[in-house]
Specification:
- With 143 residues, the protein is an alpha+beta fold.
- It contains 4 helices and 5 strands; from the N terminus they run E-H-E-H-H-E-E-E-H.
- A 5-stranded antiparallel β-sheet has the order 4-3-2-1-5.
- Strand 3 and strand 4 form a beta hairpin.
Length: 143
């Protein structure tokens, strides 16, 4: 799976209000069908899996070429949310163009949990207190 973009201190409107206040970094994750089924779908509810499959099939053939990783997700660093998105999500003209920061080099991950440990270049905003960060993590996650 590849990560090309980060949305620092994400405040996406789809995030539940009680989690949005934490403004956790979110990563735009691209996966092949096999990668999505193995690494991401186990974290999703049935409706979200169906949405992801629908979006993935829609973008599998992009008129000109096959996309290698048409299953895309906006994923919180702490895995408190995972949203199925289209491959064009970071480029949507309706969105604030400054939301996503391009990562160079592109990051490759094998498991969702790997994104928790990605180091990021510093930005200008104040970091969240450690106890606040852990207050909203999902309970009962397993490897």
């Amino acid at each position: 799976m590849l990560i090309r973009f980060v949305w620092r201190h994400c405040d996406y409107e789809r995030i539940r209000e009680n989690l949005r206040k934490f403004r956790v970094d979110a990563f735009f994750l691209e996966a092949s069908r096999e990668e999505a089924e193995e690494a991401v779908f186990p974290f999703l509810e049935r409706d979200a899996i169906s949405e992801s499959k629908r979006l993935g099939l829609k973008y599998l053939w992009n008129g000109q070429r096959i996309l290698a990783r048409p299953y895309c997700f906006l994923t919180a660093r702490d895995l408190s949310y995972i949203f199925s998105e289209s491959p064009v999500f970071p480029f949507d003209d309706l969105r604030n163009p400054g939301m996503f920061e391009k990562l160079e080099p592109v990051i490759s991950v094998d498991r969702l949990r790997d994104i928790r440990y990605l180091s990021m270049p510093a930005d200008d905003e104040v970091e969240m207190e450690e106890e606040d960060f852990y207050d909203h993590e999902l309970d009962g996650e397993s490897e």
